[in-house]
Model the fold of this input.
Amino acid sequence: PLYDSGGAWLPDGSIVWFSASGPPATDDDYGNSDLWQMGADGSGKRRVTNNGSINLFPAWSPDGKTLVYTSFKAGLSELFLLYRGSKPGARLINTKDEKYRGVWHPTNGRIAAVVARQGNTDIYSVSGNGSGPVRLTESRSIETSPTFSPDGRRMAFVSDRSGAPQVWIKDLES
Done:
């Protein structure tokens, strides 16, 4: 591969998923990246997506049954779900806003995602089927890269609300 990014281990540690692009097969293929999987020992490398687009940021649910990932296959960046053992495809949130970088909450089955709306990015939480959106951040700054504490009570994210990108912590219980 020419470019690798966004690795995600299955919770049991047996398989790692990642995004990679390689030499283009055709002129139309240049710049695409797909999701791949391989065993923890590096064996059994296999392409999972092959949709002629950019596929990034895989993240497994804590139970290892569902993967959320970012794809540009619908034009804008969108979040899609892949259920273990099936083909990729289900769109997580059906709006015209760009969405990317989904991460699973460790205990409640929800996904935090960055949503770009009218030039502003905020972080929202949605259920594992995309319903019940809740806005977690709200400012006129760029907020991205959410990650949850192991107990799910706090969320770290990057924001430029102070004038430069910095890590912020949000208490999710207050």
